[in-house]
Amino acid sequence: MAKKTSAKSNSDESQSLLTDYDIHLFRSGKHFKLYEKLGAHLTSFGNKKGVYFAVWAPNAKSVSVIGNFNGWNDTQTRMHPRWDESGIWEIFVPGLQKGEVYKYAIHSNTGEYLEKADPFAAFAEVAPKTASVVWNAEYKWKDKKWLDNRKLMADMPKPYSVYEVHIGSWRRKIEDGNRSLSYLELAEELVSYLKEMNYTHVEFLPVMEHPFFGSWGYQITGYFAPTSRFGTPEEFMTLVDTLHQNNIGVILDWVPSHYPGDEHGIYKFDGTYLYEHADPRKGFHPDWKSYIFNYGRNEVRSFLISNALFWLERYHIDGLRVDAVASMLYLDYSRKAGEWIPNQFGGNENLEAISFLKEFNETVYANFPDAVTIAEESTAWPGVSKPTYLGGLGFGQKWMMGWMHDTLHYFKKEPVHRKYHQNEITFSVMYAFTENFMLPLSHDEVVHGKGSLLGRMPGDEWQRFANLRLLFGYMYTHPGTKLMFMGGEIGQSGEWSHDKSLDWHLLQYAPHAGIKTFIQELNVHYKSEPALYHYSFDQRGFQWIDYSDSGNSVIAYQRKSDKKEDLLIVVCNFTPEARQHYRIGVPVRGKWREVFNTDNLKYGGSGVLNIGDLVTSPIKYHQQDYSVSITLPPLGMTVLKLYKEDNEFELEAGS
Fold this sequence. Notes:
Structural class: alpha/beta
């Protein structure tokens, strides 16, 4: 700890943004707006304008601010340890302005000399440079209508059709050195595209500052700074604001699970294991060669939860998708026997991380009840998306990894073999309502040799595209919210690479243009049919008609809202054989019509449609009182909706 000294001799309390109450909250792990107090802040004391710096480094012997303004000399601008033994050092430097580059020079009690970026920096130099930048974002938001509506709709069912984006590789300027688009360019091009494609949300892979571009943003060093690679904080705000003005929500990937060991980062920040555990069995992540937060340390909890609220408050973000939750929950995650330490009860659960995740969710929803938290959690941990007062972790949604694995495994099979694996495509409904599930076809499924989604589909070119349309159609009509990684919607043929643009040139070819049109209209269909989202997480929204026709590789099910007239019937044919006169049981007599078909010619299909009225017959089928005879498109999905309910039986033609 910093040596206790008198306030008069080492710190002028009149030149501090911190109060005794701030220190109490910080040390008890309950200060959730630390970004207002720690870091670099443009302010004034008396008639002097300048920058107030405050940093937590309890095991430092001395701390200085260094930068261009003092020739990077660590003897010039020495900070003062607070008298309260909080471990916080502070100083007010008159005359400094926005844009000043700086670091903290730390002489540790261990004898090390370290130069560290500010953990609370609002902006950073463009990598590979590593200094922090004094910044006070000044931006006038224009998204009040969006935020007001978000509050109004907070407790109402809503569609989530999420487009997952890696900002650096979505689209590049080939003619300008293959550079990534800026935030301002994205505010035009990406927003226009999302609006054209009818997505409800965009999810960005981490935008927080990270030194290694190839980490896709998941190795963060600047948790409070949008990466400067693409522009300023105000320009990122412009992107978010423009998305909101076009009725598109924004979700950010957030990484409280691990961080890299770069010299300028928070690893061994003051020469000791400050943010991480000292014991590598708890503090080092073997998969990612990174470091794990000490969730039992109050000051670290304040840091992380403050960071979550920072993005929701300062950047108007609508939701946080929390990365690698499973790695946080289990002490033995990706570790062999002897490489982990059991908890106090002898188990493998990380009790401190569990407590942290619960408090994170409680705090987010207490402050932003209209936001959403989403867990990437790959195990069967119970109650991930259940409220904490019911024993859950408190997330709003959870990625449905089981559905993703089973579905892609099934679709990879040749259709002739699918009849032996019917359970792979139907099993997910057995547990679909145990959590508030989001169905992900994410970036993780198109990297590391897995190929593209299109590349996994079997058959000739026509069958591969038909399979891809069927995959997306099945996904959008399955219970749960939806997430698709960029490129899937144009039938990207190659594996995703962060160093190059998506293959936009493919859209000159009819099959790829057809997939794009298909996703445009599938998103419209999803958003306009309440049965597909009203009960996304509730058994009342789904009912099987038939899951047992493995011989034909066909499944049929109902999707429902709270209104009878919204009822939809979905039938999927997982073989390339069109099936004529296929009988389906329906719960209501009358006239049904096809409202969506993945085999439409404009999507690149073969045009096997159900045109005109489908009139019910009083033939009982599939445990329903009525039935209709339909044509099933090859490798296709058809969606039926009641057009007119009849009071008397009508025999369908030719029955």
